[in-house]
């Protein structure tokens, strides 16, 4: 099966050129000057005139069916990966979650059972380590052999996911030994829990308190501490969902000193703010996630960080909980609001809006949303680039189409949109996953058995 995508502006990390892309079965066969390939030899032709043709998005931070606070995030692997495809994301890396007292390997088996045969697009796993002991540390090696070479740890959520500095140090020593990446949720959870208890004791129970008891300084402090532990051990470190200027400054300094420290941010921190968490009638609960949304002034720093590469990846931290039945759990105490927001469907569009607004270049859009996550998590050049031999994960994007985001039209399995009413320029038109058209103006033509597990290599950026 040969598909010719002709006449589009083919994007990579440097910008765009007018070119044709030839797909043969699941792979890209060639990227040529326009007209080089004989159209008569193609089984299918897609006219991409006036469209961008870019490598499929890679969302390196999602939580499908994630157990949290007595409930589960509401997208299954099936619904969440379908929504991702609608939005031009053709790979997700989701988190297997080790519960305290269980093993990493049984956790990995469990997540394979959930995801295998149930995804519309290709997927990989990171491992959340919440119980560091001799067995776990040994099991990290088997995880790496199984294509899971990145381990998320938490400096927040004492009693649940939290690791002490000593436990983090031990896992980092293993990461140094194996080349694995430690991903860090960097917030000082001990201090936050104290502030949260004080707030509730004084009658402050509404959603905005979730943000007020998690000040940006406590993200900055934890980020610096994680960086120090990584320096002492020599472990590669990747700060997840960075939201605060203080944390960014710590990352920038470490990178300036040549440390293997990387960071991602998420669209919600670029576009939303703590003002959303203060919405009346419990509406603020829709925006409760950790780290919390910040004051607007942080947004300019985050965009700058994206330009300077101190923030090298944009992921979503997609972790949807329905407003009606799930966020409701915390109506009388913000601490019981399940933490997380939906977003897997909108990342490519929201970051394209950054191109429209002049915050980032076209090449940077592709780099932060596809190429860098591929290299960061050992998927390049299979993913993240349109090159001969790469998987034909391709997005054909209309840069001038207008759209309004809404829960009424999105495909995520959640009853609200964090971006309700946002008017955007640019829209996904056609999506191919390994050569198969899965989204087009005719609708979704993929299937939730199509996605394959991606056994990943280690980080491709280490110096
Ligand atoms: N943050 C969230 O908001 N949800 C899930 C886990 C996390 O770290
Ligand atoms: Zn986290
Ligand atoms: Zn997360």
Global geometry: globular
What would CATH call the class of the largest domain? Alpha Beta
Small-molecule binders here are: dihydropyrimidine-2,4(1H,3H)-dione, zinc ion
Please identify the structural class as seen in this structure: alpha/beta
Assign the CATH superfamily of the largest domain: Metal-dependent hydrolases
- Overall radius of gyration: 21 Å
Q: What is the beta-strand fraction? A: 15-25%
Q: Terminal Cα separation, in Å?
A: 41 Å
Describe this structure in words.
- By secondary structure, the chain is of the alpha/beta class.
- It folds into 2 domains: 114 residues, Urease, subunit C, domain 1 (Roll), CATH 2.30.40.10; 321 residues, TIM Barrel.
- Helix content is 31%, strand content 24%.
- The chain has 13 helices and 19 strands.
- The strands form 3 sheets. Strands 1, 2, 3, 4, 5, 16, 17, 18 and 19 form a 9-stranded mixed beta sheet that branches.
- β1 and β2 form a beta hairpin.
- The longest helix is centred in the middle third of the chain and has 18 residues.
- Bound molecules: dihydropyrimidine-2,4(1H,3H)-dione and zinc ion (ZN) (2 copies).
- One zinc ion binds next to loops.
- The site of one zinc ion has 3 residues, from loops.
Give the topology, please.
Layout: E1 2-12, E2 15-24, E3 27-32, E4 44-47, E5 52-55, E6 57-62, E7 67-68, E8 71-72, H1 77-86, E9 89-97, H2 104-115, E10 122-128, H3 134-145, E11 150-154, H4 165-178, E12 181-185, H5 189-201, H6 208-212, H7 216-233, E13 237-239, H8 245-256, E14 261-265, H9 267-271, H10 274-277, H11 297-308, E15 313-314, H12 347-356, H13 362-376, E16 394-404, E17 423-433, E18 436-440, E19 443-444
Parallel strand pairs: 1-4, 1-5, 6-9, 9-10, 10-11, 11-12, 12-13, 13-14, 14-15
Antiparallel strand pairs: 1-2, 2-3, 5-16, 7-8, 16-17, 17-18, 18-19
Helix pairs in contact: 3-4, 4-7, 7-8
């Amino acid at each position: 099966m040969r598909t010719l995508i002709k006449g589009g502006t083919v994007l990579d990390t440097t910008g765009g050129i007018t070119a044709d892309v030839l797909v043969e079965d699941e792979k890209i066969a060639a990227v040529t000057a326009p007209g080089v390939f004989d159209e008569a030899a193609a089984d299918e032709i897609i006219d991409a005139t006036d469209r961008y043709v870019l490598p499929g998005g890679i969302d390196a931070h999602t939580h499908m069916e994630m157990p949290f606070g007595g409930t589960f995030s509401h997208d299954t692997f099936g619904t969440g990966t379908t929504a991702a495809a609608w939005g031009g994301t053709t790979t997700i890396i989701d988190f297997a979650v080790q519960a305290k007292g269980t093993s990493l390997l049984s956790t990995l088996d469990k997540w394979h059972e959930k995801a295998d045969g149930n995804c519309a697009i290709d997927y990989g796993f990171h491992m959340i380590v919440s119980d560091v002991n001799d067995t776990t540390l040994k099991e990290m090696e088997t995880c790496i052999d199984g294509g899971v070479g990145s381990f998320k740890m938490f400096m927040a959520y004492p009693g649940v996911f939290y690791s002490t500095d000593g436990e983090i140090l031990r896992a980092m020593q293993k990461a140094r030994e194996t080349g694995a990446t430690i991903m860090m949720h960097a917030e000082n959870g001990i201090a936050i829990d104290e502030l949260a208890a004080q707030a509730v004791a004084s009658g402050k129970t509404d959603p905005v308190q979730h943000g007020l008891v998690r000040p940006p300084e406590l993200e900055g402090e934890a980020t610096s501490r994680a960086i120090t532990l990584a320096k002492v051990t020599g472990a590669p470190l990747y700060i997840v969902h960075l939201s605060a200027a203080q944390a960014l400054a710590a990352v920038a300094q470490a990178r300036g000193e040549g440390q293997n420290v990387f960071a991602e941010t998420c669209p919600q921190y670029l576009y939303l703010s703590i003002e959303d968490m203060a919405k009346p009638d419990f509406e603020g609960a829709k925006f409760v996630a950790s780290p919390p949304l910040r004051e607007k002034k942080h947004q300019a720093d985050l965009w700058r960080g994206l330009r300077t590469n101190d923030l090298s990846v944009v992921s979503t931290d997609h972790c949807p909980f329905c407003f009606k039945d799930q966020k409701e759990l915390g109506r009388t105490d913000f601490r019981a609001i399940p933490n997380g927001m939906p977003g897997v469907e909108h990342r490519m569009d929201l970051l394209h809006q950054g191109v429209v607004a002049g915050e980032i270049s076209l090449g940077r859009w592709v780099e932060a949303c596809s190429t860098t996550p591929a290299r960061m998590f050992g998927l390049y050049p299979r993913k993240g680039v349109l090159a001969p031999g790469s998987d034909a994960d391709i997005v054909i994007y209309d840069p001038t189409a207008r759209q309004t985001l809404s829960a009424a039209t999105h495909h995520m399995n959640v009853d609200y949109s964090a971006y309700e009413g946002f008017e955007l320029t640019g829209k996904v038109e056609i999506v191919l996953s390994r050569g198969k058209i899965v989204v087009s103006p005719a609708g979704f033509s993929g299937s939730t058995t199509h996605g394959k597990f991606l056994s990943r290599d280690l980080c491709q950026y280490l110096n």
